[in-house]
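Input:
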Amino acid sequence: MSDYLSIANSPIMWLSCFPLVLLVLCQAVLYTRRAFATAVKMGISKSDCVKAFRAGMISAIGPSVAVFIMMVGLMSAVGSPVSWMRLSVMGAAAGEMINAGLGAQAVGSALGAADFGIRAYAAALWGMSLFSVAWIVVLVFIPQMNKVQVKVEKYDKNLMTLISTASMLGIMSYMTMENCLTGLPMIVACVSASLCMVGLSRTVKKLPWLREYHMGIAMIVGIVCAPVCAWLIGG
Amino acid sequence: MKSAVTESNFKGMSDDQFTREFGKPSIRIGSITLIIGFVLAFVPAFTLWLVYGVVPTPAEIAIIFTLVVSSGFAWMVVEPISYYGVLGAAGSYMAFLSGNISNMRLPCAMVAQEVTGVKPGTKEGELMATIGIAGSIVTNLIFVTLGAIGGTLLLGALPASVKDAFKYVPASIFAIMFTNFMLKRPDLGAFGVISALLILTVGSMFIPLPLQMLLNVVLVVAVGILIYRKKKKI
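Output:
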């Protein structure tokens, strides 16, 4: 079982995974340059753009650590290089496990099974790669959605802000409730993080520099309170 | 508060110019990178084939394709629609290439808009969200690369209680994002919670899982527009 891992972790596999990771970075650079140039033409200062970039970087630390922790499970199944590539793109570790598992299943094996060998590894790779057809769907949809957006903006300037805010509330209320239904510690995480956010949103009016960090602080409050609650009800 | 759009040199941009400067190029960059990404995603599978001679048979590949698409197709269709209103075109292309949309890209887009004091759903809002998402991609790449190189070692050094705590990260972030927008629109927030609860409890008996979130988004947007039109008439 372990010999497929020596291939899965070989330098040549690292090399084969590199291009896609590089592409993700290139795309981010291309969009950043476009957005900076457009913003400057609109009269937004470069320092504001840098502020936005830094805010994105800082706010991604918490979620990235969570991805990092989930990553190890995937690494033990399909090796480090492919996990590195898959979690740089699309990448929710859970989703990748499903697609890798479906691949293995098609050749009569399963992730973590004793007979998971090089053939199952190949099938898992195909399973994860074939999921990329999702991008073809995105390719077809987004330009259409963009046309609708342009029309909506022509019709009423305020409508797009409303749609954006309402979609966000629709997404986040669903996600929050979905988690809350899984048990008391999750509810505690949501409520404590949420209360902290209410408090912080008042504080940032006086201390604007805090704005870049307030989400991180509220997140820490959530992930500290929830295990405490789990510990209290468990023991 | 100091805001990017209240500064004296802010002059905005016409719709047509914005489409020319940012809208069209965004779609071009996105289409090209996604097509290249689609090809590059298969490089490891082909490497294994060409270098080590291991490849599933065509029949097996057909089965894998069917399994993967049938398990994911509904999500593939529903997600781009659900997230578009928040991400915009450029944000969508980036978020769908790099993943982790609800727990990483959306929060980072929001914080980027907040620190610069721009409104979501406006041109400047779209620009700042795009930049924020790009920033989050850099952080994500750093952590994933660290994880791939030294993950097992690093993770061994973390106490179990810390690892355990991080499973609450997504839920906390969803609640934070919700609260932040609820403070702006308490009415829509309250409606969202009630409809989400109904969908998740009663609705889940007959509404397929991938459609549930989209339905909630559609409902909240619809109610938002209804309220807006009513106010406009008065």
